[in-house]
Amino acid sequence: MRGPIIRTVVTGLVVGAGITALLSLGTQATAAPADFETVPFEVSGELPIYPKALWKNGSTGTNVRKVEARLVQLGLLEKRYQDNEFGTMTRSAVKKFQKSKDIPRLGYVDQNTWDELVAVTREPTQTELYPPPPMVNGKRLDARCATGVVLCIDKTSRKLRYVVDGVVKMQLDVRFGAEKTATREGSFSVGWKSRDHVSKLYDSPMPYAMFFSGGQAVHYSSDFAARGYNGGSHGCVNVRDLGKIKILFDQIDVGDKVIVYRS
């Protein structure tokens, strides 16, 4: 059984075939241009031929950050999404750029797109690529809190900081899980939100819950408000200020970063 046949369609070959047919009928025709290019196409029953991707959805690393920084310069990508990861927002920005240059809207960066992007932007500075971490009371927060919208949670100072592009917008007192149900540390993102959530496992209210790691979430705790640090959670990040978390809940979107660390 034969496998699928992949054919490269070249505009010059199509023109050449047409010329041959005309000559066989005795019709005069001019020669095809010597320079021609392979172009992306979609043909029923055939596999599409596309340029090689340099960076695409799912790519990570410094080169992705450089692409994102140039897109930020053009106002096509918000600074919050400059994060070394080629995701949905970066893909959308790349397609906008490609449309503006009247080149195929591939949604990934091929060599042609990269050349066009470099031509209309400047080399990003080190500060643009890696903004300095935000400062609070003369102390640096975790470097991962420097870009984008972040719930920056310090287990040492027991503070949650709502940070936008390196600027601390709000600070809240928080407490964490007990030793056997410790709050996980690391880099996460908000997976889903529930304004009036009730824990099925513990049958306890978790209002304004923002889940970031399995069943662990940032949420208001009436117990924390009443007992302070004498109590503890089952792994969640408890907030005791109801007024502040009401405001914070509406500012945070699914996908925003959550950084849990020790200073």
Give a summary of the structure in a few sentences.
By secondary structure, the protein is α+β, with helices and mostly antiparallel strands.
Structure description:
The chain is of the alpha+beta class. It has three domains: 1-49, no CATH class; 62-127, Orthogonal Bundle (Muramoyl-pentapeptide Carboxypeptidase, domain 1), CATH 1.10.101; 135-261, L,D-transpeptidase catalytic domain-like. It has seven helices and eleven strands. The protein has helices at 11-24, 62-73, 88-100, 111-119, 126-129, 222-227, 242-251, and strands spanning 135-136, 139-140, 149-154, 159-164, 167-175, 186-189, 192-198, 205-213, 216-220, 237-239, 257-261. A nine-stranded mixed beta sheet has the order 6-11-3-4-5-10-9-8-7. Strands 1-2 form a two-stranded antiparallel ribbon. A hairpin with a 4-residue loop joins β3 and β4. Mean pLDDT is 85; it is low at 1-38.
